[in-house]
């Protein structure tokens, strides 16, 4: 039987009240000349390195508050703002206290994705607009709650899939849609990003005194850490991360879905992969292939976190490109980040009938313009777009997470008679061979049929558990859909 969202979700709206947050607060109406006051949540590379300068360079925008459970990051960012922008900001360890700040108009969320949903929902309930980094959510269900919060409380919520604000990508997609190379046959999205092991400790990592570890964990399980670093490497543990096919993949999948015009999840999916060579504390795959069966055209994704071959320092590529989205059409292909080519590999000029403008100011400028207009339709990367693209990456990972070790013969049989999937599987085997990895140690995920209307799986209770996710009290996601 198909399991509906209403049937398997548990209501948790009371969680908001129990955490001392306002359910709804009125926000002031912003005029064209009003100063927009911003609070930044999460002060790592994206928060301090991108959100801070990105917002600060915009006219009529001021960062007035910063928040992080790591007091060294917090104090360091505040000192940098005083030095570079010559004003003092308020500092918050607890994001709930920041959201209570009455004179904030906007928060930007630059935490890791397991901490994206709660600040976004709380901010919407408190009458604030939100710029949230990608991937939008750690689980499919909570992503839908973020969309619901934005609509229910009439807030502007932008997602940090920056390619939506990149003119060259919009132009390449327009070129494809105009049929210049014929009908789309399939799309291959890919990330060839060599990464290092995150280490494997025999004793838990000591948590520094300057980190509030309970707040740092938030909704994730509060458990000992056996990797070498606390911060970014949490991306490679299922408890707090979602692996490369989501972390990086949401960018490429978002471009592919934008190009296809698909507005829902695929009809079914399947994944094969493994975490090879590293022998570390990570448990997400560092080599992975995924097939997404969309009605318009198939979409494929492949991850290579290992180098092209054992002993090499070079990254693998797909048609000469390390990371990107390649649209294969009847008469050639378009690398959405790199140009158009015919089927013989000769470059084709991309002549456009009508240039599709994405607007000035990049993603931050687009967000602030929408905050001023009050229209989520003005966003290049609305929360709904971010939710769907992130959810696509999650369904592929869920297949992998339900997988088992299988022989190459079993893997080939499950790939079925799908030529483009077989081609990707061949590349996968060649990559493992080049790195001297036994392909029979791969994890083979099941084919999963998807209930597209309800954003869950058909006939798979285990898969649907991973749709809903796991939360630690009191950091519970409120169910706004009931």
Walk me through this protein's architecture.
The chain is of the alpha/beta class and 482 residues long. It has two domains: 5-164 and 364-383, NAD(P)-binding Rossmann-like Domain (Rossmann fold); 167-358 and 388-460, Dihydrodipicolinate Reductase, domain 2 (2-Layer Sandwich). Helix content is 33%, strand content 17%. It is built from 16 helices and 18 strands. Strands 7, 8, 9, 10, 11, 12, 13, 14, 15, 16, 17 and 18 form a twelve-stranded mixed β-sheet that branches. It has a six-stranded parallel β-sheet with strand order 3-2-1-4-5-6, with helices on both faces.
> Regions with pLDDT < 50 over 5+ consecutive residues?
1-18
How confident is the prediction overall: mean pLDDT? 93
Radius of gyration: 22 Å
CATH architecture of the largest domain: 2-Layer Sandwich
Name of the CATH class of the largest domain: Alpha Beta
The main sheet comes to: 12 strands, mixed
Query: Could you say how many structural domains there are in total?
Result: 2
Helix content: 25-40%
Question: What is the number of E strands?
Answer: 18
CATH topology of the largest domain: Dihydrodipicolinate Reductase, domain 2
Question: Structural class, please?
Answer: alpha/beta
| Percent strand | 15-25%
**In angstroms, what separates the terminal alpha carbons?**
21 Å
CATH-assigned homologous superfamily of the largest domain: Dihydrodipicolinate Reductase, domain 2
Number of helices: 16
The 3D shape can be described as globular
């Amino acid at each position: 039987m198909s399991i509906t969202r209403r049937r398997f979700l548990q209501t948790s709206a009371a969680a908001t009240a129990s955490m001392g947050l306002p359910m709804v607060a009125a926000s002031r109406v912003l005029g064209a000349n009003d100063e927009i006051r911003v609070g930044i949540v999460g002060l790592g590379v994206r928060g301090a390195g991108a959100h801070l300068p990105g917002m600060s360079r915009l006219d009529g925008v001021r960062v007035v508050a910063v928040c992080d459970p790591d007091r060294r990051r917090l104090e360091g960012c505040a000192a940098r703002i005083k030095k570079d922008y010559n004003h003092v900001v308020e500092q918050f360890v607890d994001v709930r206290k920041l959201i209570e700040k009455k004179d904030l108009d906007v928060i930007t969320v630059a935490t890791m994705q397991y901490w994206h949903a709660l600040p976004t929902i709380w901010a919407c309930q408190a009458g604030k607009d939100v710029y949230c980094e990608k991937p939008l959510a750690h689980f499919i269900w909570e992503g839908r709650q973020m969309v619901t919060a934005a609509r229910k409380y009439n807030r502007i919520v932008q997602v940090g899939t920056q390619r939506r604000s990149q003119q060259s990508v919009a132009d390449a997609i327009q070129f494809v849609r105009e049929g210049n190379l014929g009908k789309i046959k399939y799309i291959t999205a890919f990330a060839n990003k060599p990464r290092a092991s995150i280490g494997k400790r025999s004793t838990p990592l000591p948590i520094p005194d300057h980190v509030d570890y309970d707040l740092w964990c938030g909704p994730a399980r509060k458990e000992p850490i056996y990797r070498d670093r606390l911060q970014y490497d949490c991306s490679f543990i299922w408890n707090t991360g979602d692996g490369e096919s989501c972390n990086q993949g949401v960018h490429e999948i978002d471009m592919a879905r934008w190009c296809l015009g698909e507005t829902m999840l695929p009809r079914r999916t399947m994944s094969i992969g493994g975490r090879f060579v590293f022998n570390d504390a990570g448990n997400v795959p560092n080599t992975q292939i995924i097939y997404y069966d969309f009605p318009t055209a198939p979409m494929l994704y492949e991850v290579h976190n290992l180098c092209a071959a054992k002993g090499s320092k070079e990254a693998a590529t797909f048609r000469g490109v390390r990371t990107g989205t390649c649209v294969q059409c009847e008469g050639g292909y378009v690398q959405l980040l790199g140009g158009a080519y015919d089927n013989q590999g000769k470059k084709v000029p991309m002549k456009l009938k009508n240039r599709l403008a994405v607007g000035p100011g990049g993603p931050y400028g687009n967000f602030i313009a929408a905050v001023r207009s009050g229209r989520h339709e003005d966003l290049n990367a609305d929360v709904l777009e971010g939710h769907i693209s992130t959810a696509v990456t999650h369904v592929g990972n869920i297949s992998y997470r339900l997988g088992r070790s299988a022989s190459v013969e079993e893997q080939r049989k499950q790939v079925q008679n799908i030529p483009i999937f077989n081609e990707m599987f061949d590349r996968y085997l060649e990559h493992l061979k080049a790195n001297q990895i036994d392909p029979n140690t791969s994890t083979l995920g099941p084919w999963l049929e998807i209930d597209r209307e309800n954003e869950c799986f058909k006939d798979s209770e285990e898969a649907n558990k991973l749709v809903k996710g796991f939360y630690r009290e009191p950091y519970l996601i409120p169910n706004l859909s009931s």
